[in-house]
Amino acid sequence: MTVQFPELAAIRLGFGLSPVLPPPADPAAVLADVAATAAAAPSLTTAQAQQMHLHFREIDKKARDAGTPDSPEAKEVRRTMVDRRAMFSRLRMADCATAQVGFGERLVQFWSDHFTVNPQGPGVAPMVVAFVEEAIRPNINGSFLDLLTAAETHPAMLLYLDQTQSVGDRSPFARKAKKPKQVGLNENLAREMMELHTLGVGAGYTQQDVRQLANLLTGLGYVPDDPDQRYFPRRAQPGAETVLGQTFGGGRRDGIDAIHQMFAVLANRPETAKFVARKLAVHFVADEPDDALVSDLAAAWGKNGDLPAVYAVLVSHPQLAQHFRGKVRQPFDYIASGLRALGMDRQSILGLPDQQSRRWFNRAMALMGQPFMNPSGPDGWKEAAEAWINPQLLAQRIDWAMSAPRILLPELPDPRNFMQAALGGTESELLARAVPRAESIRDGLGVVLASNDFNRR
Q: What's the short name of a Pfam family annotated to this entry (predicted)?
């Protein structure tokens, strides 16, 4: 099948086709979308998330100290947090389903998953949204170094990987601790930074490198009551550390500057270029991408990780067409693409009642295997098709396909027109024959949304 660039780009790089939004005409339009997405105002700032965190923590502590954890005030705050999670899912769905092109929002999703955060605790969920909006979004079209620095130093990451608990064992803080055995080094951030965020597994670093990096990172932290401060010298391990053969810091601690120097080293390693290039190829092209594609993407990495240059290679690469429908849409992408194909506008999505939002977005995603904002580990969501398509999970997609459109739309479109709008003539002969034979409009739409053609990009 020969697929024209506009349809190819919309389906493979964005959230699919729409009856009300034209597909991108050329690669320049796709790349311009990334810049526009990065420049969009955040829907929630880190400062706002911190205020929510503090407010909830205060109410929760007050209720527990009073022995009334289920007081009406505490219940109301918890209910508010649940409602906000539903609101956040509507916002992300609206951003993605109604994006002009969609490649920028796909990259927001990709990088948010690459730098997975999922901190647990009273009132911290908004911090995850702020992480996406202020650490990821503004940096998707710059350098990998800037993106890495913003992600690794954001409160959501520091809380998630327990960096806030990491203390150098020879630091002033540890020496004066009342319970020395309860303070010490935590290697989580250092390990995930090397293993999942930059170099990748098997890149030749050692446990000693991880431990030295963890010592270098001591001092980096987050305290909700002092949100503007990210570095605490009294918690830092004194002296120099050697990581990957290079020495950082010295007799007098260089503080956050030495940590930033380490970020630059990691961003410029060839192992990082290859590791990130392969992740992009896996996410956008094929579960098992050709080595040539990975090499082409890595070759564009340049100094500090020139992300726009890497995207330019990806957007124009011939393997985009060669592996058409080589990827299964993950549940979030599937629902966002469904809303886009149904022509829902931003106001209609944002105006959905919380109950409907929870049922058709949050609950539906959870049943399809991808609970919103709740990955099971720091390695994020799986990419392989078998992680998302099995009889049980596919049944949930079919249920959404058959039920959601008649709830979400005031009037259903003709299934033949819907198939053309959603797939742009790329549908298989089998689907093209099945849709006109559907017994009802509802069934016709469901056949398209549940089809292999729609579930894959």
A: DUF1800
> Residue 186: what are its φ and ψ, rounded to 5°?
-120, 125
Crossing angle of helices 270-284 and 307-316, in 10° steps, is: 40
- Name, in order, each residue with C-beta under 8 angstroms of 231's C-beta and a sequence gap of 6 or more: 219, 220, 221, 255, 256
**By CB neighbour count within 10 A (0-12 exposed, 13-18 middle, 19+ buried), where does 70 fall?**
exposed
For the record, the structure tokens of 224 come out as 């909700």
The DSSP code sequence of 69-105 is TT-HHHHHHHHHHHHHHHHHHHHHHHHHHT-SSSHHH
Give pLDDT tens digits for 130-186.
999 999 999 999 999 999 999 999 999 999 999 999 999 999 999 888 877 778 999
Question: Which residues lie below 8 Å from residue 300, measured CB to CB, with a gap of 6+?
Answer: 306, 309, 310, 312, 313
d(CA 302, CA 405): 46
Query: For 384-403, how does the pLDDT look when each residue is reduced to its tens digit (9 = 90+)?
Result: 999 999 999 999 999 999 99
In a 10 Å sphere around its CB, with 0-12 CB exposed, 13-18 middle and 19+ buried, how is residue 277 labelled?
buried
The tens digit of pLDDT for each residue in 295-321 reads 999 999 999 999 999 999 999 999 999
Question: Which tokens belong to 66?
Answer: 């009073």
Task: Give the separation between CA 46 and CA 312, rounded to whole angstroms.
Answer: 31
264's tokens: 């630059």
Parallel/antiparallel/unpaired status of strands 241-243 and 246-248: antiparallel
